[in-house]
Amino acid sequence: MIVREAIVMPVSMVPEGAVVEIVSFSQRSGRGFIQKLSSMGIYPGAVIRVLRNQFPGPLIVDVMGTRIMLGHGMANRIYVRIIR
Amino acid sequence: MNTRNTILTVYSTIVGIAYLVYGIGEIFYSISLNSLGIFIFPFWADPIAGFSLIVVSMIFFTAAKHLSSDHKKAYMYIFVGILLAALLALTHVSVMIANWAECCLLLNEDYAEWTWFSDLNPAIPLFALTLPLIQPLRKIKWKKV
Amino acid sequence: MIVRVALVGNPNVGKSVIFNNLTGAHQYVGNWPGVTVEKKEGKCNFDDVEIHITDLPGIYSLTANSIDELIARNFIIEEKPDVVIDIVDGSNIERNLYLTLQLIELGANVVVALNMMDLAKEKSYEIDIKRLEELLGVPIVPTVAPKKEGMTELCEKVATVAKRKVSATKIRYNSKLEDAISKVASILSSYPTLQKYNMRWLAIKILEDDGEVIRYVKEISENDPVVWDKIEDIKAELNKEFGDVIVAMADERYNVISQIVSKAVKRITAEEEVSITDMIDEVLTHKYLGIPIFLAIMWTVFQFTFTVAAPFSDAIDMFFAYTADLARSYLQPEWFASLIADGIISGLGFVLIFVPNIFMMFLALSILEDSGYLARVAFIMDRIMHKLGLHGRSFIPMLLGFGCNVPAIMATRTIENENDRLITILVNPLMSCSARLPVYVLFAAVFFSGIAGTVIFSMYVLGIVLAILMALLFRKTLFPGKPSPFIMEMPPYLIPTARSVLSHMWLRGSKFLKKAGTFIVGGLILIWAMSNVPYGAPVEETLIGQLGHLLAPIFAPLGWDWRIAVALFFGFIAKEIVVGSLGVLYGIENPDPTTLYGPLRAAMTPLSAYALMAFTLIYVPCIATLATIKQETGSIKWTLIALAYELILAYVVALIIISIGSLVGIV
C-alpha cells in the first residue's frame, strides 16, 4: 500500500531510506539548474530514494539505480513528496 | 540465531577493545619517545598509526551495537572493519619489508641496528584476531554492484 | 577508406577504457583550443579502414550550460564525424539513454556501445538487444570494455554504417510537442543558411531556451520581430499546456525512454539483496566515522609514499653518488669533471631520487580514484569545505597539494565552476608540498632539535590556516557569490584493474617528471655554472656570490644573509634546490646536511630560522607549479597574481614572526 503524504518539502529534509517523488523545483531555479538535474534523472515525476542525509550537509540519493551526491544548496531547491 | 548473535556481539566487542587498547598505547608510546628527543621521520607516523587502530576499534564497537537490532547493518561494519584492519596490517608489513631492504640490501648505515622487531606493530596480530569474523559474513547474499 | 569517429557518453561509463582499447599506443593528448579541457585523439585500423577517433568530454546532455557540453556538441555539428559512438552503461540504461536521445535529435550517425554488460548481468538485467535496436532506430554493440570484449564488433559496425545517410529518426515525442517542433522548424527553413543544420534539433533547442542556438539564429534572422513573435507565441502556447517547456521536454524524453526500456529490458531482482557498494558506503560515509576513517587511509598512503618508497630512493641516491665519484676520478680536465659530476650527474640524481616517492603517491591515488573512494571523500569533506566557500570537490586537489602542487592543480579540472576552480588553484601552493620538507627538516634539526617534529608539523598547520584565510578572502573580494551547486555521480566501488591503475600512475607521474625534471636539472646546472665561474674562486667572488650580495639588502630586516638570499632565489626554480644550494654556498662539496649545522648556527638565530621556514612555505610556487597554473587557468593574469600575492604574503608573515618574536623576547 502506497501512502502518499500530502506535504511537499525540500529533499534536504527527507530522512534516510525514504522514497520520494519529485514535485517541482524552486521558483528561482534557472534553466541550467533544471536541465542539469534532468539530465541526471532528477525531474518532476521521477521517483528517487534518499540513501544518506547528513543535514545540513550533502545528500546521497539513488536515481534510477545510480548513486548521486547532492550539495545541500541544491537539495534545498528540489521539492518532493514522500511516497514510502 | 540468538546465540550466534550473542557470540558475534561479544567477539566484536573484544576485537574493538583490543584495537582500542593498543591504539591508545601506541599513541602514548610514540609521544613519550618523541619527548626524549628522538626524531621520528616522517614525524607523524606513530601517533596516527595509533589513531588508525582506534578508528578500527570504533568500527567494531558500532558493529557490536547494531548486532542486536539490525544485523545486516552490523555485518556491513564488520566487513569494512576487516578490510581496514587488513589495510593497516598490510601497510605495516610493507614498511617492515622496506626497512629490511634499507638495512640488509642497501646496507644503509642509518639502519645498522634494525631488526625485524624494530617495526613489529600490533596492527598485524590484531588483524589476525579479526579473521574469525569472516565466517559469518560468508552467509550473506550480496550483489556485486 | 578513412572514417572519422567521435566518442561520447556519460562520465564513468568506461569511455576512456574503450578509447584506450581502440587506439592503444596511437594516442595524442592535447587541449581543445582556447580552453583547458583535455582533448584526446587516436587512430585504429580495422580491415582496410583507418578509423580516426576523437574522444569528447563525458557529458550528461547536450545543453549550452557547460563548456564540456558545448565542446562535444560543437564538434559533432561543425566537424560532422562519420559516426558518433555513444557509450551507454548497460547497468544504468535509463539515465544513459537521455543523452542518446539527444544525439538522435541532433541527427548524428549514432552507434551505441552498450558497455558494462557484465555489471548489467550482475544487476540481473536482461537486455533484448535486437528489440532495443528496433525501438531506438540505431545499431547497438554490446561490450565489456575492461575485458576488451566487443571491440572488433564495434569497429566492424562503425565501418559498415560509416557512409550511410541518416534518415529521419524513429523517435517521436508527444503530438503537442511534435506539433510545436515542426512549426518552429518550418519557420526556420525559410533561412537558407540554416539548411546545413538539423532543423528539428534547432527547433527543439529554441523551444528549450538554448542560449547558443537562440543567439545564432537571431543573428541569422537579423532579429526579425515577425519571426520571433511567432516563435514566442508557439512557446507561450506550449507553456500554457505544459507549465514549463524545459521540464516538459525532459519529462517527455524520459517517457519515451521508459516505454522503450519496458519493452526491451527485463529485471529479475530480489529487493532484499544489498549491494557491496551500499555496504561499504554505510560505513565510509558514516556521519562520525567517515572523517577518521579517511585520516587513517591517508596515513597508509603517506606511509607508502615515504617509508616504503625510501629504499628505492636511497638506492638511486647511492647509484648516482657512486657514478659521480667515478666521473670525478676519471675525467679530465678538472672543471669538466666537476661539470659532469657535480652539475649533471648530481643534478639528474637529485631529481630522480624523488621518482619512487612521486610514483608511489600517484599509484596510491590512482587506486583510490579508480576504486571509487575519492568520490566519497568529496562527500565527506563537503560540509567543511562549504564553510570555506568551496565544496567537496575542491578537497582532493588540496590534498594532492601536500604531495606536489603540480598534479594537484591539474586535478582541479574536475571542478566545473570557474570561480571555485580559480580559488582552489590560487590557494593550492599554500599546501606544503613535499619539496619544502627538506628545508624544514634541515632547519628544524639545526635550531629546534628535540621538538623538531612539532616545529615541522606547525609549518603544515600554518599552511592550512593561511590557505583557509586566503580562500575566505578570495571568496569575499575577488569572487563574490555562493559556491556553485554541487552534484556528482558516485560510481559503485570496483576493484581497480592493475592495467588502469598502472597506466594512470604512469601518465601522471611521467607528466610531472618531464615538467619538474627539466626545470630542476636545468636549474641545478645553472647553479653549478654560476657557482663555478670563475672556477676555483672562493664562493663569495663567483657569480652566485655577486647575485647574493645584490639580493641581501632585501632580506636583511629578516635577519638573513646573502647566502640565504641566493638559496631562496634559486628555490624559485624548485624548492628542493634550497638545501642543495646552501651546501654549495657554504663551500661543501657533497652536502651531508649535518655539516651545515655549524655554519648555519653562526649565521642565524632560531627566530629568523623559523621565519625562514615560514617564508619557504609561502613564497612563490616553484616554476613547475607556475607553469601548471598558467596552463590550467589559461591566463597570465592569474599566474602573476598567484606569484605576487604569495611573495607579499611570505614577506609579511616572516616579518610578523620576527616582530612578534622580538617583542616577546625570543631571540
Question: What would you note in describing this structure?
Answer:
The complex is a heterotrimer of chains A (84), B (145) and C (667). Chain A is built from 2 helices and 6 strands, in the order ββαβββαβ. Chain A is α+β, with helices and mostly antiparallel strands and 84 residues long. Chain A has a single domain (8-79), classed as Ferrous iron transport protein A (FeoA) (SH3 type barrels, Roll). In chain A, a hairpin with a 5-residue loop joins β3 and β4 (59-63). Chain A is globular, with a radius of gyration of 12 Å. With 145 residues, chain B is mostly helical. Chain B has one domain. Chain B is built from 5 helices and 1 strand; from the N terminus they run αααααβ. Chain B has helices at residues 2-35, 45-67, 71-105, 123-130, 134-137, and one strand at residues 142-143. Chain C has 667 residues and is α/β, with parallel strands linked by helices. In chain C, 63% of the residues lie in helices and 9% in strands. In chain C, α29 crosses α30. The radius of gyration of chain C is 30 Å and the shape is elongated. The mean pLDDT of chain C is 82.
Question: Characteristics of this structure?
Answer:
A: SH3 type barrels; 2 helices; 6 strands; globular; B: mainly alpha; 5 helices
What is the total domain count of chain A?
A: 1
* End-to-end distance of chain A: 9 Å
Label the structural class of chain B.
Answer: mainly alpha
First-last Cα distance of chain B: 28 Å
Q: What's the shape of chain A?
A: globular
Characterize the biggest β-sheet of chain A: 6 strands, antiparallel
Helix percent of chain A reads 10-25%
The total number of structural domains of chain B is 1
Sheet-strand content of chain A, in percent, reads: 35-45%
- Largest sheet of chain B, described in full? none
Outline of chain B: elongated
CATH class of chain A: Mainly Beta
For the residues shown, what is the average pLDDT of chain A?
A: 85
- Give me the Rg of chain B, rounded: 18 Å
**Total count of strands of chain B:** 1
The SS-based structural class of chain A is alpha+beta
CATH topology (fold) name of chain A = SH3 type barrels
